[in-house]
Structure prediction request, 1168 residues.
Amino acid sequence: MGSNMAEQHPVGFQWVVEAKERGAQVIHVDPRYTRTSAIADRHVALRPGTDIAFLGGIINHILSTGSEFREYVQHFTNAPVILKEEFRDTEQLDGLFSGWQADDGLYKVESWGYRGTEGELTAGKSEQSGDVSGDQAHGAHGMKLPHGEPPEVDIELEHPMCVFQVLKRHFARYTPEEVERICGVPAQRLTAVAQALCDNSGPDRTAAICYAVGWTQHTTGVQTIRAASIIQLLLGNIGRPGGGILALRGHANIQGSTDIPTLYDILPGYIPMPHPESGDDLDRFVDDNGPDTGAWGGLDTYMTSLLKAWFGDAATEDNHFGFGWIPKIDGDHSHYAALTRMIDGRCKGFFAVGQNPVVGSANARMVRKALRSLEWLVVRDLTEVETATFWRSDAPEIEDGELRTEDIATEVFFLPAAAHTEKAGSFTNTQRLLQWRHKALEPPADCRSESWFMYHLGRRIRERLADSPLERDRPLRALTWDYPTEGPQDEPDPEAVLQEINGRHADGSFVAKYQDLKADGSTTCGSWIHAGIYADGVNQAARRKPHTEQNWIAPQWGWAWPSNRRILYNRASAKPDGTPWSERKKYVWWDADARQWTSLGDDPDFVGDRPPDYEPPEDAKGMDAIRGHTPFIVHPDGLGWLFAPSGLVDGPLPTHYEPHESPAANPLYATGVNPTRQLLDDETNPFHRSDGEAGAEAFPFVLTTYRLTEHHTAGGMSRTVAYLSELQPEPFVEVSPELAQLRGLEHAGWATIVTARSAIEARVMVTDRITPLTVDGRVVHQVGLPYHWGPNGLVKGDAANELLAQVLDLNTHISEYKSATCDVRPGRRPRGPARLALVEEYRRRGHVVRESRHDSRGGAEDG
Amino acid sequence: MAGFKLETRVWPGAYGDEARPRMGFFTDTSVCIGCKACEVACKEWNDVPASLNGFTGDSYDNTIDLGADTWRHVAFVEQRKPVDLDPSGPDGTTLAQTAALGGLAGEAGLQTYQDGEGMRWLMASDVCKHCTHAACLDVCPTGALFRTEFGTVVVQEDVCNGCGYCVPACPFGVLDQREDDGRVWKCTLCYDRLKEDMEPACAQACPTDSIQFGELGDLRDRAEDRLAQLQDAGLEEARLYGADADDGVGGFGAFFLLLDEPEAYRLPPDPVDTVRDLKGIWGAAGAAALALGGGLAAAVLRGRR
Prediction:
């Protein structure tokens, strides 16, 4: 679900094909019939943006038929935990959870906690700092629990306020009929899918769920994934072979760039970015962000080792190992928030590295407005992407005569980048597996790798600041920035970077595992989850032992973080007493004679000699507080969270909200749309009315955007390559025969797609693969738009992202690319000022609105 | 189909000790995901020019057909098929309904394989068939087309003179001239790679093993097994195409497993070696000429009278 795996991950899809050959049943739930559907056993079409309702229907099916994996749920999840008296569900508050603060549009989350844990949650500091997600990221590491145990539980799962009963009540209304009404999926079809999942789960069987940006790119993205987690926990499909929830990532190394992040709110290994209130006080940071119990109990060792890796000898106990030198996060500095600050003139410079937001980000018009507001822009890419040429004559505003190139003052630097074949490094895939790749040839001409650019930029800045007396320059001067270089271009040695990531002991030897890290400054480690990737002085990610020479787990192919663990939480593959659930699904188990956890070949994700009946002493901390039967060691209670007491801004349970722009009203609640969604206000970013409001009829169809196998995201790697360009040479819009008839669209002719943001044109593809859906007794038509094209390259065309609004999930600041509304008209779009006139006419008819929510334009100046 | 006849007129006989096993492709379209990696890998390896045809509207196919600049071509066939209706159920019930009623979700009744909601989308990577009886070879006056030691059919670019005789000779329309100098180009089954014991580029790039490369005899055995597996799963229309030595071209060196009749993929259902009957045709023509000549002579003689 939420993934078109065959098209977007064709290489990974070989394993799905192989599983199918071996008897697995493949079910594809997606608005469109895609190349994935074509090879699946079953395709179920649902309305974009209604995935939670569908998943909720599955949860209801599991709970109402008693199909949950009872023993797993009782002992491995927080189903028995009793919640606070004051917790109120959306079912009681008409779409809101308890704690709603209408004034600031946020929740106070205290009432979502476990009973007996008053005021222990670390979330809720948002009023101080103005950044919600950062704070909640702190909270995601969980609450403080004395000796790692929830205070009140009912192991029989019968207490009315235990998670299991709350869950049952919450999902009771997601009946097949209600799901049909919301999603447009026939009730029987939902039941068949739910039953197939149930039938394929249990001691002897497991089922996996794959998702991708079809889930994340909604105002309810995170909650959709939470809904899948609930299903997999109820069915016992986590921590066991063949189970899990697989987040299929959009590029070869997106997982790697999350683990050692290019994100603004986390440090390597998912350590939260410090907030100003931590000041220079490392202990306070650790106390605020690390629960005492579970794997995050080691935060002091992870953070100290990171600081030692970055600042070397300059990091001492006296200066809190340089903690004060780390920048502090003072607000929402996500991609879209940064764009609004550019428009306001508060953010003056921007690096776009391997990113083409003029084609790839929502509301391209607003993106270009932001870029025009900059003083300078640096674009590093393989080819001259549209983000580097937004000022040229083929940019829509200039083509339409609204603006002139000479009126744009932004200074643009284009720096050519080396391709992946021209530099060594690692790719991290969906299952956390790092695979080293070697350089095949030198990059041509001025092309350089990212690490070359960052290293030499840092080196030159440090040279300039070498004698600076200013305190603000101290962090840069203190950095360890001494990578050896090699080759004609002085390329920094990527293995040296990998060694820094792995970390060393005081004697210079490599640390072997994250458990070896110390808080006293005697170890370094650039990313605690990667500790061991250079164990024994060997690049473990470069290992290539074929599967024919080892068992099916193949632990000697590449290296998976942490500790080369191929299945996380794999203690769940054994019963609470430590014996395997079944011979067929045997994976990790307790060897009572050796008094050790052992496995078929994986690293047991548990304390190696911790017996299944272990109960922590009263004052236990860290991993010592993890009970012998609880597999989810990154949580302070060791349990899988059916109910999330912390970590999310929009509720402890997923519930169905309509997309921000929707052709249907929410039949469940008065609060029909995610109340915490983030709306950025700009004259270029007006929103449509949804069903039931005057003006909604101007944009009657659901618009969804997506990629094709033949192109790469915003096109920088494919639209300049003839062999790829010829395969999908023009933008096209996919519509059903019914919609084509309704709007007079001619197959292979032209259509104009209009939203309140812009109007674009595309060739018409009339196909049965797009189906109208019956939603609450009405027909809802879908309009499908691949988004790869722009004005540059061998194949050109209007970018689909001209049409979308910047409407975000507040948890992640990811935009709702997958579901908006639009109109479609036959023929090409108007040229010149007539385009904007057409859009203006639609804006009037559609009574479009401007609105601001969590548009945090406060905070310090960037630049 | 062990023991299946693989021999062509010149292979292996003409090669003597230098003959290598006959190599070929088995393209199993039931696992094709239409990624076109084969098209791209082929062009990359063989330096085939791009052919920007623009948007065709023919499903996701914008390279149209096999030709001088497209040696692998993925066809996309969208079919409206009411596959969801259960013939054994009450009128109008879907398989899902029937299964739900009987508590049989996930069991045989719901296995619709490549079928979705009343439609299916067939994908198939087409290529030169490397026929056992290859008419293109027989009509080539320069010897540019030849049968290799692997039993494959290859055009030598430095010998071809662009006469174009082979173009109408091919029963599949594979052979095609480039517009610049009229020479003919087609799949070589990566002859250069084969000589280095390497797999052809398309087969190596195929992520799902839809394109399988190997010794033709092995491939045919494998294809028989796969066909049986699919037919057991209820795919009665599944069939092998080009695996029959008795067909009009003596079987293909690159053959296919199709999920529908060949016409659905725009493939000829009954391809025939276009020079198969040449001997007979020449014979008949000779007899006719003799008869005509005799008649003329008689007429002349008669006229002299």
Notes: The radius of gyration of chain A is 27 Å. Residues 253-326+432-445+489-565 of chain A form one domain.
